Amino acid sequence: MSIQRIILIILLVVSISTCRSSPHECDADDDLSTQARKNLEQEFGHDFQAYPSYLDTITEGNNINQDQIHGFNDNVEEVANEVALIDVRSFGAKGDGDTDDTMAFEKAWKEACSSKTPVRFVVHRNKTYLLKQITFSGPCKSSISMQVFGSLKASDKTSDYRKDRNHWILFNNVQNLVVEGGGIINGNGKIWWQNSCKINKSLPCKIAPTALTFYNCKKLKVKHLKIKNAQQIHVSFERCTNVEASNLIVTAPGDSPNTDGIHVANTQNIQMSHSSIGTGDDCISIDSGSHKVRATDITCGPGHGISIGSLGSGHSEAHVSDVTVRGAKLSGTTNGLRIKTWQGGSGSASNIVFQNVKMQGVKNPIIIDQNYCDKEGPCKEQSSAVHVKNVVYQNIKGSSATNVAINFNCSKSFPCEGIVMQNINLVGESGTSKAICKNVKFSNVEKVSPHCTAGKSLLELISLYYNYYLY
Fold first, then answer.
1. What pTM was computed for the model?
2. Contact call for residues 339 and 310 (beta carbons, < 8 A)
3. Whole-number Å distance between alpha carbons of 119 and 113
4. Residues with a known catalytic role
5. d(Cα 418, Cα 316) in Å, to the nearest integer?
6. Which helix (H) or strand (E) holds 162?
7. Alpha-carbon gap, residue 252 to 183, rounded angstroms
8. What is the pLDDT of residues 345-376, one digit of tens each?
9. Which of 320, 312, 318, 273 shows the shortest CA–CA distance to 292?
């Protein structure tokens, strides 16, 4: 039998099965092949539109169970596309949520990484795989698509992280990697939160694992995943290039400590899009060494907002440039759009655009803090600072949960420069709001409420009056 005919039979059987089990999902006039293709795309993450859409006549009564269909399709695809199938169950993974499947995943990855043909690494749905700390290392001989349909759950025994307390799942030095599938990455972080110094002040501060880390990866796609309850940071891209992260749902309780949603450090050319993030810390944090960073259509809350920094801690030099945040929605966050740098640092945060952002009940909607201090007492003022320049705020509207909607707390020695504000309207809870602007040099201000006046020259005040009140 031809490969095309095999595929068509599978499509029809899956379609009939779906319509019989859920009649409301299939109308009488539906094209069965189209419905079947959609089901398979959801299961396997592949586009089957390239295959013929017509159906030959087949007899009823084909008793093919779901597992046979999946296995049959796996073999067909492997032959048709020369893709090697790596099934973690073949390496002893149980997927019962209690058995340690770490060794099975390590064996499966070793096989995948050594394959000379592209690999489809399958983590099956309706299964929960318990994993200790695990590293998927490259370089690998071919491209790998890890399709997580089921759940990966972290061990909650802190002793399982003795060798590497910084990571749970780590992809190291892998190129041409796709991680997708609609499954769940569960950091199982409650035990870590309870023992955090931010929750229990009597405990010493210790590092907790990042749930999912990509280190030194190139040509990377991470999409259609749910990452929840990380021990600390949920997803981290470090020293990566050419990254696409899309359709991610990241969740943790609003009081979970240091649980950043997506962290970007020393990474170039990264696009984050169409994702919803609600955690106990920054929805997105962008750290030093990151350039050409794009974040579009991001929903954020709860959390600490979208942050660049903190930069320059411990008198270090930090550089971030060419960052665009466009089309974000923030609700109930403790900060909105924040740039934070430590006193005593050096370097720059430049060429940054915040555009088309909606806010609801955000405590500090727009904030630049060059005097950032993560201490209970005040930090001593210092002469050096990370230079913040060429920052655009455009089309930003909504409500502030505090009276101060705009707060530019910039350095005396290195004032914020080239700040552009256009079409800003942020209203406080009382119906009014104010702006605090310290050591700021504006390039352009148009239609901004609330607007800054303190410390400006007569020419700047006239320009503000002209742009705000006359337009």
1. 0.81
2. no
3. 8
4. 281, 304
5. 24
6. none
7. 16
8. 999 999 999 999 999 999 999 999 998 876 66
9. 320
